[in-house]
Design goal:
Length: 131
């Protein structure tokens, strides 16, 4: 019975801190325009422990020259990491940020950006951004 108390205490502490599954944000560094070089960014935050796999894919294939920032952590002690790669969007491309972490159920979380140019135009129309 004495052994259970520390384990329950750790679980309660993790619950209070909100540690667990990562939050994933995918975006282009600047307005996406077909045929113009840009930077694809995947920012993963709010996870613990720091062991995590993050992959950037274009049309189902791992993208070359992906750069991985150092692990940092926020005020709650949760980890975050920025992953990015230069890319040139073309019509019909599908970009994926695939994240695998021990706190996540199978299959891994996948966020998809399809046709970044069309996505920007849609958002521009919805919020009246300059085109």
């Amino acid at each position: 019975m004495a052994r259970r108390a520390p384990a329950l205490g750790v679980l309660a502490l993790l619950a209070l801190l909100g540690l667990g599954a990562p939050k994933v944000e995918v975006y282009a560094r600047s307005r996406a325009e077909e045929g113009k070089e840009n930077i694809l960014v995947c920012f993963v935050s709010g996870f613990h422990p720091p062991e995590i796999d993050i992959d950037l894919l274009k049309n189902g294939e791992n993208m070359p020259n992906v750069l991985y920032g150092d692990f940092t952590f926020d005020e709650k002690g949760q980890f975050q990491r920025l992953v990015h790669v230069p890319f040139t969007p073309t019509k019909g491309d599908i970009f994926i940020c695939r994240v695998e972490h021990s706190s996540m159920p199978e299959p891994p979380l996948v966020l998809i950006l399809r046709d970044l140019v069309m996505l920007y135009r849609l958002i521009s129309a919805l919020v009246n951004l300059p085109r």
